[in-house]
């Protein structure tokens, strides 16, 4: 049976229309699958983001700040950011500015900081030596700190207690009125400028063992080095404070988002400078550097500097580094 040409044409049109309808339906189904997949991924991504935010919201950072290392400048940035980035900053004030915490206060602080959930995420700062939360059964916080060339820090403190700084210029310091220079103090071999008083940064990183407080103790130096590498998230150097802030912003954006821009575009980069500080003579420098305590303090500084540069290289200079999971077996169904 043969169909007339008009019939063949009609059948051809019907087949084309039917094929287009089928193709359209297939495309609709594919599109729906994609939308379902995107929606599922969005749900999963949102859930993952919320889980991450929940973890970030429990951050505890302890900045056991070494005196005269630009700590006020850094803390000033944190105080300015805390409202915007929704975290708390708390100063830990120890009686008589003691750097050593009693055992019961170590336990109380570890317990309180760990369990005070309503204040988290939080940055605690104060002039006290490192102490280990896990010793008391609590999860370790993220420790950070800054370290400075030991002689520069020593001289800065010497003149600070006499003349103060530009942060609070009207505050009378404990050595106010004493105009003796650091050179004169060293020449007279006075206790205040005894090289043993350089022994400060090693104890801060060493911790609360008795040997940490013994000037020139080799075990204390080794313990301080170990803690810098294993128990501190980051230890920067005063001379490279900008890079210290940059690394924290990249690593802990929950708290330090916008920190570098704020540091560069506010007065925080030059917040505190010791007034009337004099450069010591070469003879004075040689006397200080001949002391075993300076040599050990400087060894710690050089160690921390090298470690910081290693971290900086792999954080600031290799920003395009990516880490992905591959060859996951068995496959997800």
UniProtKB/TrEMBL annotation:
One of its GO terms (biological process) is heparan sulfate proteoglycan biosynthetic process. GO terms for molecular function: heparan sulfate 2-sulfotransferase activity. GO terms for cellular component: Golgi membrane. Keywords: Disulfide bond, Glycoprotein, Golgi apparatus, Membrane, Signal-anchor, Transferase, Transmembrane, Transmembrane helix. The chain crosses the membrane at residues 6-26. It is a single-pass type II membrane protein. Gene3D superfamilies: P-loop containing nucleotide triphosphate hydrolases. It is found in: Golgi apparatus membrane. Homotrimer. Belongs to the sulfotransferase 3 family. This is Heparin sulfate O-sulfotransferase. It comes from Cryptolaemus montrouzieri.
């Amino acid at each position: 049976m043969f169909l007339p040409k008009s019939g063949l044409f009609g059948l051809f049109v019907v087949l084309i229309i039917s094929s287009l309808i089928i193709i359209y339906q297939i495309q609709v189904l594919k599109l729906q699958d994609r939308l379902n997949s995107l929606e599922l991924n969005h749900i999963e991504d949102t859930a993952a983001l919320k889980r991450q935010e929940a973890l970030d919201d429990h951050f505890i950072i302890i900045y056991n700040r070494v005196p005269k290392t630009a700590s006020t400048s850094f803390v000033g940035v944190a105080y300015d950011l805390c409202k915007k980035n929704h975290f708390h900053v708390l100063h830990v004030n120890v009686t008589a500015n003691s750097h050593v915490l009693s055992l019961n206060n170590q336990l109380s602080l570890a317990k309180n900081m760990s369990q005070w959930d309503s204040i988290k995420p939080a940055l605690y700062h104060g002039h006290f030596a490192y102490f280990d939360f896990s010793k008391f059964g609590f999860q370790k916080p993220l420790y950070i700190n800054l370290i400075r060339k030991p002689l520069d820090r020593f001289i800065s403190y010497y003149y600070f207690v006499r003349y103060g700084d530009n942060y609070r210029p009207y505050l009378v310091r404990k050595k106010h009125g004493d105009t003796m220079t650091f050179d004169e103090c060293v020449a007279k071999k006075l206790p205040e400028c005894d090289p043993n008083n350089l022994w400060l940064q090693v104890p801060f990183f060493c911790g609360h063992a008795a040997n940490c407080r013994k000037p020139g103790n080799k075990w204390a130096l080794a313990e301080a080095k170990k803690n810098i590498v294993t128990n501190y998230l980051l230890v920067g150097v005063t001379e490279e404070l900008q890079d210290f802030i940059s690394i924290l912003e990249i690593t802990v954006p929950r708290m330090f988002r916008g920190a570098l821009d704020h540091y560069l575009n506010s007065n925080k980069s030059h917040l505190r400078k010791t007034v009337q500080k004099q450069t010591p003579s070469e003879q004075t420098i040689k006397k200080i550097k001949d002391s075993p305590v300076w040599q050990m303090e400087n060894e710690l500084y050089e160690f921390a500097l090298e470690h910081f540069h290693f971290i900086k290289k792999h954080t600031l200079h290799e920003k395009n580094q990516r880490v992905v999971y591959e060859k996951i077996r068995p496959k997800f169904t």
